[in-house]
Design a protein that fits this description.
The chain has about 400 residues and is an alpha+beta fold. Helices cover about 25% and strands about 30% of the residues. The strands form 4 sheets. It has a 10-stranded mixed beta sheet, covered by helices on one side. It has a 5-stranded mixed beta sheet with strand order 1-4-2-3-5. Helix 8 packs across helix 9. The two termini are about 35 Å apart.
Length: about 400
C-alpha cells in the first residue's frame, strides 16, 4: 500500500501506528538527501515541522520497503537509506535483483515466491497479460508467514503485467467458501495496491464469483488478474435492472488510506429520493473524471470510493446514533444534527437499512453492505473541470455461468 504524506497530521497518524517505511522527498538527485526510514526511526518524529498543517517536505509511505523502493523508481526519483538504520539498506541489497520484463510467449509456472522453499499450498500461472493464482488458503491482512509468502509471490508477478493503450485491470476472486469478505481486500489491498500501479493506470475492475475454484480441489481460493479493454463488459456477471444511477458529483481527492466519510456525504446527498431497497447481489460502474494536472491510482482509491458510495446508499438503523453522529460530524466538519438526519434518512437507501457504523475506540468504523457487491468497475478519465467528479450506476446482476 502506497500513501502520499503531505500534512503533519497524516505523518503523526502513521508514527502512532508504528508500521511501514517513509521516504523524505526533497526532490533532488543526491540519494543521501532523499533517505528511506522505518516509521519508528528516531529521526521521523523530527520531521513534524510544522507541527500541524502542510509539511515543508512531502513524503511517501508504504507498508513494505520493497514496495516503497519500487514506487520511488516508478516516479523517477532517487533514494538512499537512513544512516541510523543500516539494516534497511542491507536487506534490500541482499534481495535478488528484479528480473527484466520480457515478452512472454508461453505461460510460465511459478509455484513459489523468491527467497522461499516451494509451497504446495499455492500455484501460479502467468504471462505479461494474465496471472492466475490457486491457493489452499485465503489471502488475509495479517503477518502470518504463509500470508507474507503468498502476498510477496502475487505482488511479484502482477507487477509485471503490461497493459496496452485503452486497457484496464480485471481482478476476479473465485471461491465456494461462504466467508463474508470484500473482494477488493483479497485481490488488491492485501497484496499491496502499489503492485498494481503499472497495470491499472486507466482503471480497475474487481469481481467476486461464488463457485468452486478451478484447478486443484485442495486449493479452494482462486485469483485471476488480466488485462481487458477499458470498455469491456464483466467476464462473470450480466447486468439486469438499474437500481439507481447518479450523474457527476464532486468527491474529495483520495489515496489508499482515505476514509469513506466525504464520499458517503456526497453520495447520500446526490442520490435520488424514492428508494426501493434492493436485496441480493449487485454491481457498480464508476467513472472518475480528473481535472487538469490531476492524477490518481485506481487500485489505491477504489476501496474508499466503493465503501463511501455503498454507505451513501444505506440508512443507519439508529444504534448509537448520537455518539456516531457526533464523531462523524467532527471528522467531516458538519453539524451533528445534519449528519444524524442524513444517516437516518431512508428515502435514498437504495441498498437498504443496516447498522451502518460501529463505535471503535474513540472513533468509528463503517459497515456498508459491500460484501454484496460482486462486480465493481472504476474507469478514470482526464480533461474535466478542476477537481474530481464521480458518476456511477448500481445494477442488479445474474451470473454468466
Amino acid at each position: 500500500m502506497i500513501r502520499d504524506i503531505r500534512t503533519a497530521e497524516e505523518l503523526r497518524e502513521l508514527i502512532d501506528a508504528g508500521q511501514g517505511y517513509v521516504y523524505n522527498d526533497f526532490g533532488g538527485r543526491d540519494p543521501k538527501m532523499c533517505p528511506i526510514h522505518s516509521i519508528t526511526c528516531r529521526w521521523v518524529v523530527t520531521m513534524l515541522k510544522p507541527a500541524s498543517g502542510r509539511l515543508g517536505v512531502p513524503k511517501i509511505w508504504a507498508d513494505s520497503v520493497d514496495e516503497l523502493t519500487a514506487e520511488i523508481g516508478l516516479r523517477g526519483k532517487v533514494h538512499g537509506f537512513c544512516g541510523s538504520e543500516p539494516g534497511i539498506g542491507r536487506a534490500v541489497a541482499a534481495a535478488p535483483a528484479a528480473r527484466p520484463t520480457q515478452p512472454v510467449r508461453a505461460r510460465d509456472q511459478t509455484p513459489q515466491p523468491a527467497n522461499s522453499a516451494p509451497d504446495p499450498r499455492f500455484h501460479f500461472e502467468h504471462s505479461d497479460r494474465e496471472v492466475t493464482v490457486s491457493s489452499a488458503y485465503r489471502l488475509q491482512f495479517d503477518e502470518k508467514p504463509q500470508t507474507k509468502q503468498l502476498k510477496q509471490a502475487i505482488g511479484e508477478v502482477v507487477a509485471r503485467l503490461r497493459p496496452a493503450s485503452g486497457e484496464m485491470l480485471e481482478a476476479v476472486y473465485t471461491s465456494a467458501v461462504t466467508d463474508l469478505v470484500d473482494a477488493e481486500n483479497v485481490l488488491l489491498y492485501n497484496v499491496g495496491t502499489g503492485r498494481f500501479a503499472a497495470c491499472a493506470q486507466e482503471g480497475v475492475r474487481f469481481e467476486r464469483v461464488h463457485a468452486p475454484a478451478p484447478g486443484s480441489p485442495q486449493c479452494a481460493h482462486h485469483h485471476r488478474y488480466a488485462m481487458v479493454g477499458s470498455n469491456a463488459p464483466s467476464s462473470n456477471w450480466r447486468f439486469t435492472d438499474t437500481i439507481v444511477r447518479v450523474g457527476e458529483i464532486a468527491v474529495p481527492r483520495l489515496d489508499a488510506m482515505s476514509k469513506p466519510d466525504e464520499v458517503w456525504f456526497a453520495v447520500s446527498h446526490a442520490a435520488p429520493v424514492g428508494a426501493h431497497p434492493h436485496v441480493g447481489h449487485y454491481a457498480l460502474e464508476m467513472t472518475l473524471e480528473l481535472g487538469p494536472g490531476e492524477r490518481a491510482r485506481p487500485a489505491d482509491i477504489v476501496k474508499p470510493l466503493v465503501d463511501g458510495l455503498v454507505a451513501g446508499l444505506h440508512s443507519h438503523d439508529g444504534r448509537d446514533l448520537q455518539m456516531l453522529a457526533s464523531r462523524l460530524a467532527a471528522r467531516i466538519g458538519l453539524a451533528e444534527a445534519e449528519v444524524a438526519e442524513r444517516l437516518m434518512d431512508p428515502s435514498r437507501a437504495w441498498l437498504g437499512t443496516r447498522r451502518l457504523l460501529w463505535p471503535r475506540a474513540d472513533g468509528l468504523q463503517w459497515n456498508p453492505g459491500d460484501d454484496g457487491c460482486v462486480s465493481a468497475t472504476l474507469r478514470v478519465g482526464h480533461g474535466g473541470p478542476a477537481g474530481w467528479r464521480l458518476a456511477f450506476g448500481v445494477f442488479g446482476v445474474e451470473a454468466l455461468r
